[in-house]
Each structure stands twice: as structure tokens, then as C-alpha cells.
Amino acid sequence: MPKPDNGKAGHLRSGTVEPNMTPNGYIRRWWKEAVVYQIYPRSFYDSNGDGIGDLRGLLDKLPHILDLGVDVIWLSPHFDSPNRDNGYDIRDYRKVGADYGTMADFDALMTAVKAAGKRLIIDLVVNHTSCEHSWFVESRTDAKSALRDYYIWHKGDTPPNDWTSIFGGSAWTRDEVTKDWYLHLFDSSQPDLNWDNLAVRDEVYDLMRFWLDKGIDGFRMDVISFISKDKTFPNLAAALRSRPQYAYTQGPHLHQYLQEMHKDVLSHYDITTVGEAFGVTLEDTALLIDERRCELDMIFQFEAVEVDRDQNGRWKPWTLPELKAIFTRQDKALDQHCWPTVFLSNHDNPRIVSRFGNDSETWRIKSAQVLACLILTLKGTPFLYQGDEFGLTNLTFSDIDQTNDVWTRNAWRDEVLTGKISATAFFANQDRLSRDHARAPIPWTAEGGFTTGTPWFALNPKFSSINAQSSEAVCLWYKDLIALRHRCDALIYGDYCDLCPDHPHVFAYTRTLKDEAFLILLNFSEQVQILSPLVPEGAMTLELTNYKDRSHVDNLWKLRGWEACIYRL
Ligand code: NOJ
To answer: By C-alpha distance, which of 133, 241, 125, 251 is closest to 189?
Structure first.
């Protein structure tokens, strides 16, 4: 139900002491205290044997999610779509994709989530539509239609500039019907909407209200930082040619449109928003999430998940001090009016244990636990991705037919088929970075357990040994961490202090809120690490360790391979 006011106006009264303020100056909000769990519905659980995960399947597995103790489910696109980009190309914003079920299934899911006292947020994909959306179908066929201006068209023999698509090739495609060019910052099947057209913004606000009035609790907003375009269409600066996302976030009206959306829609509901801020620097983050600006509650900022990417987006080795420095810079860049997110994975990224941990048989479980501990004890709302609670690992590729992702397949076309790079080099990079790693269906059992039919995408061939049942230890650890976080304000709002920023293998930090404080010690290596004491050894109580106990450790500052400990100070 719509709410008249979400209370945000109260933030702005200067000199007023808010009753719901933490001792270090944060306004308490449910979404700051929540743990979010992302579902990629296609790969979660198939209830009807057609090989594709669906909403009924999600409902069947809801007990698992509830048991973990998370508060919010973020559902990746469940809308009608030709699925060129697995739902991030929407054909009808008000219709549930047939693969996923019906609106009745969505309503049943939402009702069950709410009945359990949890919340559901959905994806809002409005930088672009599918080329099969009725708006684009009319826009492209009738240059005189009012819908022509819903998209960004350019007349002429050549495109207006050299913008490239994030998924490879030019961002402009010449349409066969009128011979004009249309803009698509992603695949040519994903034409960009023209947000400068008020009618487009009104359509978007209407469809947002459609889902909000149904009772959803907010939106994850897909590449929301790209919605405003610089219509003078400058060429890309040389430094940004390999990472154009940093240019596409500089549209002149981004903040104006988000403030308008906030005023017209968001402010009328008790919901939350998290914007995918691809290409937004840490320096520009506050412009989107400072609560006094009334734009978004949170964003995904990409520095941490890009720690292993070079300037061209290819894999590069990363170091722990680099990762720590990013979290410290983020903490310093955001004051009490801004609230961060913490995430190391999603449907666009590899599996965390293969990327940041050690996915060998010996260390998979322990290193998955260390990463969970990091995500759930840093400052910011943690976003967990399905399957990371089972320590699922990456795939390996040696044939383009083993891949599904449109980005990968476009890159194969542009880089390998044109002879720019060898197939071996291509797959070496895909083994590190492919988006397909996270999209393989969840192995619920040693038999696979995802579907009774043929899965739409092959399960990781290791499923008989790496599956939900064999990895219960990781899952139980997530559960313990989530429960501890919920009990302790300091783990949510507490000040963050990195105690050994230069240590190459240990991440050690405190979280402190008035008289509650925690020390978190994480060994990011297989070797034993012995630290010099980092805090005075007063009365420290062990809250959690991912080893059986610490009784066999002679020195408090000694950490075994991939050991995680949380002490209360
Ligand atoms: C970001 C989404 O996370 C990704 O999966 C999608 O391909 C692009 N936006 C385009 O919508």
C-alpha cells in the first residue's frame, strides 16, 4: 500500500535531534540493518521440469532463504523478455515472463515473503528496453509516431559520434526501416530510452507505481547512472575509450531526473532503492546517495569488485592491501548522510570463492567462510548472491558453445573471429571474468537437483561434490554471521578502522559503536599468520571462528589458514 510519507523530510531539519539516530550520527533505517539476498530466477530452482528456474521454484526454496536469516530478497528481472540478455531486455514491464510463471505466481511469492516478515525488491531496467518492446516496435517503424522520440535516433550517413557499446562494437545501429541510427549502450537488441522526453519518464514512473502498489519494497535500478545522455554527443575522451562507462555517467540531467523520480514516486512509499552505478567514481558517489539530496538510498559502486581488472577490463592479479585500501577510501569518502553497500559478487561477476578465496578441495569451505565474514562485518548493507552460501565455484570454458552470455558471445565475434586474439587467450580471460560463472544453475543435491528436465545452462560439472548439501558448513556459517550482525548494532553502524592496511595476507579491523566494539581477524592465505598485537589484550570474548574453536592456538594473534575470528572487545 502507498504510504503518504516515508519520513525522509525529517532528515532535513537542522538542529533537530532525531530520536532514531545512532551515537555516531547515522539515521537508523530498516534497509541499513538488512541483509539482502539476490536471486537470479533463471538459475535458482525449476519447479516444473522445463529446465528454467521459476517463481514457483523460488517459493519452494523460500524456507532455505528464510533459514539463512536474510531480510530482503532482490529478484533479478522476472518480466516478459526475449532473453537476449536474460531478462535485462524487457518486452513488457507489467507482465511476468512465461518462463518464470504468471502474475498469480508473483503474487503468491510476494505474499509468502511478507508473511514471513521479509521484504522483496525487484529490478528496474529502464535505461533501455528490448527491441521487441511495443514502444520500440512502433518507434522504429513509424518516424512520425509520438513514440519515435521515446528512443534516441540520429539521421545521417554516419553515427553522430564514436560511442561504443558496453557489450562490444558501436553503440549506434542503423535501423533497416528508416535508415536512421539508434543508440544502445548495451546490445543492439537493447535500445536506450530517451529520458529527456517527459512522456518516457511518466511511463517509467507509472510502471514503478504499478509494482509498488502491488506491495514490493523497492527497486534495484539497472545502470541507472546512464539514463541521461549528453545530446551534444561528444566523442569519447582517449582515456575513456576502453572504459566508456565513466563517460556515460556524466549525462547532464542524471540528478535532476533522479530527484524528480524521488519526489513523484519514491517518497510516497516506505521502500528502498539501490542503484547500479556502473562507471560512477567514489568521488561522485555521495551525489547519488547523500540523503539530503533525495535521490537514491544506496548504490553499487564498483571499485572493490573491479580490483582484479585492468584499464581495459581484463583480468589482472590483485592484492589484499589494494582491496583494503578501497574499503578505507570508501569509508572516508562517505559521511553519515551516505550509506554504502558491501558486495563482492552478483550475476555479472565470477564466484567469490574462486576469485578472492581459494577454491581447492582443501580450502574452499574455509575461504568461502572468510569472505562471508568480510561481507557481513563491513560497514554497509551486505548484498549476498545466490549460491555463495554454498561456496560455489567458477566454471572452465574451452568452447564458445559452453557460454550463454551475450557479452561473451559478442566479444568472441569481435575479438576471436576477427583474429584480434587467440581462442586460448579469450578463454583464459573468460575463465577469470565471465558472467556465466554465477549464472550456472544451483546444484541443490549431489544429483544436480536443479531441475527434473534438461537445464537451460549446464550445471558446474563439479556438482556431485560441490553442492548445497556438501557445503552445509558454509551455509551454517552465513547463518551465524547474519544472526550476530542482527544482534549487534556495532556490526551494522559501527565505525570502521583497518588495523593493518599493509599486511599482505591478513585483513584485521574493528567496528565500534559507543561502548560496543568488535575485532575481526581474517587470514586470506593458506599459511599460518602471526600478528603483532593489534589492540590491547583486555577482556576479549570470542564470538565466532570458522575453526572448531581456538583452544589449540597458543597465541591470540596466530591465525590458521583461511581462519576468520570475531572477538567482542
Ligand atoms: C547491468 C546488469 O547487471 C547486467 O546483467 C545487464 O546485462 C546490463 N546492466 C544491461 O542491462
So the answer is: 133
